[in-house]
Amino acid sequence: MIELQNVTKYFRTTKGKKYILKDVSFSIPSDVNVGILGKNGAGKSTLMKMLGQIEFPSHGKIISDKTFSWVMGVGGGFQNNMTGRANVKFVCRIYGKSKEEINRAIEFVKEFSELEDYFEMPIRTYSSGMKSRLTFGLSLAFDFDYLLIDETLSVGDARFRKKSKEALMKKIESCSVLLVSHDMGTLRDICDVGIVSNNAQLHFFDDINDAIKMYETINKG
Amino acid sequence: MKQRTAWQVQKSVVYALFLREVSVRFSAGRLGYFWVIFEPLMQIFIFVLVKMLLFGTKSPLDYSVFITIGFVAFNLFRHILDRSMSAFEGNKGLYAYKQVKPIDGLIARILVEILITMIIATIFVAMGFYLDRDMNVENIGMVILGFLWLIVFSFGIGLFISVIGIFFNSFLKVVRLVLSPLMFVSAIFYSMQNMPQALQQLLYYNPLAHFIEMIHDNYFFVLNDSFIDYEYMLIWTIMPLYIGLWLYRKLEKGIISV
Question: Do A76 and B96 touch (CB under 8 A)?
Answer without folding.
Answer: yes
